[in-house]
Amino acid sequence: MAAPELFQGPICQNSARTTIEYLEERLELCLAGKDEQSHIELLVPDDSGQEDDAGCAASVGKVVSPKGLCMMLLNNGEGVSYHITRLTRFKLIFIRQRNSISPLSINRQLLMHLVGVCNISQRLLDFIICFGPKCGETGLAPPLAWVSSHRPLSQSTKTITPWECAYIVRFPELNHRSLASPWSTRQFLVYQQLPRTQLSPSFIFAGIGRSAEDALRDHLARQNDIQSLYWWELHLVLLTTGVSAWRPYLAYLAGKVDRQAERAVLVDLDWDSAETTQLEERQYLKQLDDILDEALLSLDHLIGTIQKIYENITIGDTLGLSHHQLINHACQENIENLRHCRAQARALQNKVKSACDLVSDILDLSNSNALKLLAVESARETAVMHQLTQKATHDAAAVKVLTVLTLIYLPATVISNFFSTAFVNTATRPDGSFLLVVASNWWIFVAGTLPLTGITIYIWWFYVQKEIHGQYPAWWRMLQSKFLALVPARRPHAQARRGRGLEGV
Predict the structure, then answer these.
(1) Which of 133, 190, 368, 397 is deepest in the core (most CB within 10 A)?
(2) What are the distances in angstroms from CA 47 to CA 51, 64, 93, 218?
(3) What angle do CA 229, 222, 220 make, to 5 degrees?
(4) Dihedral sign of CA atoms 391, 393, 396, 400 in order
């Protein structure tokens, strides 16, 4: 059934599946600037050495690779138009990238000219914006593989639009920079346009890395005539290259996970120093867990890409049975290998989580042991404080006895000094010995000392009960209650008197 006329425009245009604002923002980051050098590379036949004046002026020159392949550098629109339109079979275009976070070697003007010359869908921009600095969704996973329709959109038009596909392969690759982190995540873009005649397919490779380019060059160098290649061979070569990189990378991750897991199992439970070390181990295990999460996401994306490309390559009847069998075998083998790698990554992730749980348990035990030591120290300090409290209690009792004795002797001393009288005197006997003689007014001393001593002790007891225990004697509470009852009774009489005085005025 033909597509409704209303929907034919958007389907034919194949516009980018994102907002214009976001597309503009990302294109500024992933493409070369206006003042920077911009170029693409085009694979040309070896016999294209004789160029006319326009062709030579429109190109930078030729570079012969170690594999004997001839690449032409094009840095302006005239060269792109001239050399691409001359090729009648395969058109292999390379857009370079200096490193994984640098922008592509093509600026916006040259990119739009290339899109116009090759009649490329705007959907290519959805994949171009994934290059350059990684931020937001571009750092998680590339877009899903995109494949255009194989069939005519209307029964009235028998022409078939060119078949297009675009996808990004993300895979690990050795960076040869440091032993601490020898692997980095790489990605490259593959775009293909296949005309309905299937005679002159166009390929665009953006950000292709060393390993993928070497595999592609090896495959092309083994061909006697590049123009006799089947277009689906290039897809299989590049996808297989991305698949083959995962096994050594997972072996590297397995070694790191095993070492960290062994360190967690064989940790020396020296509680004074184990806590900081185990905290660092836990942080590193969290980093490994994040790396494995990214690996699983990339593996799932690559599996989906291969499945979609395989389904759309074999959808038509233009391929022979032997080609169908070869494509099916290669794709199924790659998918099985990726699923096996995914199972390995999942097992490593479970191992990392087990090690994280073990480290967490060790930290909990360390905290429990620290709390136990604090409890023992607190008990020791409590015992010392108990001893100090007992000693203070004994000292307080001694001071209390001393205070009572002082209260007893102080009134007697005051009475003696007040009367300035010696109630006890000494006399000399005729034989020369001494005799104590009590004065006749000794009763004054007793009569003044006993009441004053009682009053002094009672005042001291009253102060102790009031300030320390917060209690008052019964007689004080009785007087206080009578006083409080008397004050409200007198207050109305005073108000009444003030009222009568105002009336008189």
Answers:
(1) 190
(2) 10, 13, 18, 20
(3) 50
(4) negative
H or E element: which one contains 223?
none
pLDDT tens digits, residue range 342-381? Answer: 999 999 999 998 888 887 777 777 778 888 888 999 999 9
Q: How many CB atoms are closer than 10 A to CB 65? A: 14
Strands 91-95 and 202-206, by their bridges, are parallel
The Cα–Cα gap between 341 and 295 comes to 10
Residues of the chain predicted below pLDDT 70: 1-16, 46-69, 150-160, 196-199, 225-228, 265-279, 314-321, 397-398, 401, 415-424, 467, 488-505
Three-state secondary structure call for residue 26: helix
Compute CA 168 distance to the chain's CA centroid, rounded to the nearest angstrom: 26
Residue type, 14: N
338 torsion bin: left (phi>0), alpha (psi -120 to 50), beta (else): alpha
Instruction: Choose among 131, 121, 147, 144: nearest CA to 209.
Output: 131
Rg of the chain, C-alpha, whole Å? 50
What 3-state DSSP class applies to 141? coil
Q: Among residues 27, 294, 245, which one has the least CA distance to residue 141?
A: 294
Type of residue found at 364: D
CA dihedral 310, 314, 318, 319 (to 10 degrees): 70
Q: How far does Cα 333 stand from its chain's mean position?
A: 36
Six-digit token pair at 225?
A: 């005539």
- Give the C-alpha separation, 366 to 356, whole Å: 15
Beta bridge partners of 104: 97
Helix (H) or strand (E) holding 94: strand 91-95
- 141-183, pLDDT tens digit by residue? 899 999 987 654 444 444 557 889 999 999 999 887 777 789 9
pLDDT digits (tens, 9 = 90+) for 297-310: 999 999 999 999 98
CB burial string 454-487: b at 16+ within 10 A, e below: eebeeeeeeeeeeeeeeeeeeeeeeeeeeeeeee
Between the alpha carbon of residue 60 and those of residues 37, 40, 66, 83, the distances in Å are: 12, 10, 19, 12
Q: Where are the domains of the chain?
A: 18-47+57-151+160-226, 230-380, 424-477
Write the DSSP string, 27-89: HHHHSB-TTS---EEEEE-TT-----HHHHHT--EEEE-TTS-EEEEE-SHHHHHHHHHH--S
